[in-house]
Amino acid sequence: MKALKKTLDVLDFLMNKGTAGVTEISNELNLNKNNVFRILVTLEEHKLVEKEEETEKYKLSTGCVVLGYGFIHKHPLTRLSMPVLKGLRFRLGESVNLAMLDDKQQYIIYVASEETIKPVKVKPREGRRYRINSPVSSAKAIRRALRGEMGFAFDHEYDEKNGIAGGACVIRDYKGRPIGAVEVLAPTYRMPLDVIDREIKPLLEDAALDISLKLGYWD
Hints:
Layout: H1 2-17, E1 19-20, H2 22-29, H3 33-45, E2 49-51, E3 58-60, H4 62-74, H5 76-92, E4 95-101, E5 107-114, E6 129-131, H6 140-147, E7 152-156, E8 164-172, E9 178-187, H7 193-214
GO molecular function, one term: DNA-binding transcription factor activity
Protein name: IclR family transcriptional regulator
InterPro entries: GAF-like_dom_sf, HTH_MetabolicPath_Reg, Tscrpt_reg_IclR_C, Tscrpt_reg_IclR_N, WH-like_DNA-bd_sf, WH_DNA-bd_sf
């Protein structure tokens, strides 16, 4: 189990760092360099990492993408949400995203999205993790919705030229537990506060309830 934990620590470090050499990984994770090298060789054999020829540093490889997409597209939340996301994007005309809450309810992870066809798009990075209590601006509406009791929250930056507006509503499982959220994002000038309250909120609540019911939730 210790060997497995070390391997997962290396993968997690590369995910956050991007690229790193054996020495850097060894120093940051307090692991023996020979152990790090053996771990990287094994991961490389399984196409989970690859070495850059010029720098001889390691980075995550295509095998991680395959594993990630395999999980995402077979997960009930994603599979049952996609038709709802498509319909919501069609009705709103803006980008709609799906975020998943991890089992320990510490992180949210963007797992799917339906992009607007409008020229200016606001889109989070799929696969990116955000701490539920993080003070950073990313995923504000989702984090507020998941932390609050109302199940809905919005974020509205008052910079009309470059600001971002968003609304999010909680998705619940068959036990009523929050497991994710559906979110709409757009530039502020396309989503003023009155539109969020009058048009966006009811549609988001309907979409989140639809997905929740498909997952066995009963209000």
